[in-house]
Amino acid sequence: xxxxxxxxxxxxxxxxxxxxxxxxxxxxxxxxxxxxxxxxxxxxxxxxxxxxxxxxxxxxxxxxxxxxxxxxxxxxxxxxxxxxxxxxxxxxxxxxxxxxxxxxxxxxxxxxxxxxxxxxxxxxxxxxxxxxxxxxxxxxxxxxxxxxxxxxxxx
Amino acid sequence: xxxxxxxxxxxxxxxxxxxxxxxxxxxxxxxxxxxxxxxxxxxxxxxxxxxxxxxxxxxxxxxxxxxxxxxxxxxxxxxxxxxxxxxxxxxxxxxxxxxxxxxxxxxxxxxxxxxxxx
Lengths: 155, 118
Hints:
The complex is a heterodimer.
Chain A: H1 2-5, H2 8-69, H3 75-101, H4 110-144, H5 146-149, E1 153-154
Chain B: E1 2-5, H1 7-18, H2 24-36, E2 46-49, E3 56-60, E4 66-73, E5 78-86, H3 87-96, E6 101-106, E7 111-115
Parallel strand pairs in B: 1-5
Antiparallel strand pairs in B: 2-3, 2-6, 3-4, 4-5, 6-7
């Protein structure tokens, strides 16, 4: 009988192999699904991370515009205010720089890491530029008149 | 040449020294060279011509990644150290001022000499 050709043992082995193959496929599909799910979660996380970066960048941009328009009228008062701003900006800049150099940062998927890096770099650039604007503005104001020139320190 | 510095510049210098990125000796070495020979190639003086201000020169502290920006007044000869920072920051500043070019600067000639690449 044909049935004899497929003994119970053989059938069982085939079933076992099939089942193993099926399990592998399901496992694979599940893993892909899980990965996608995790990615989605990270996307949300990234978005949550990106929002404060974007907000900080636009804040720094408007801060830069403000510095371009206002200051300096009174070197004594304004330079103290600008010094304070400068110190805070430098602190933030150092923090952003540290984040940019962190290796953990690149554990994210390349797309997410790229998005984070680009937005952080933009924030970093804005912080550097506004610090430079402050430095230059004070320098220009001091070189402009003799009385303000005396406000400078010995190099 | 009379050389002065802003308070912000000196504060940033202190921070860089504290972080051991440069030493005061290295800074003093640059200042010494600059006072004697502002065009000494060791400190790589470059004029940075921007829309904002065309009287800025950049200097490098020898054997470091530290750059300085100096505001120049030719008549009377005055120099103010306004900015100090790492090369990364310096590049950011240069890139931002889109029309910036680096050219060697000579107060006596009062004009640009050789165009060098960035």
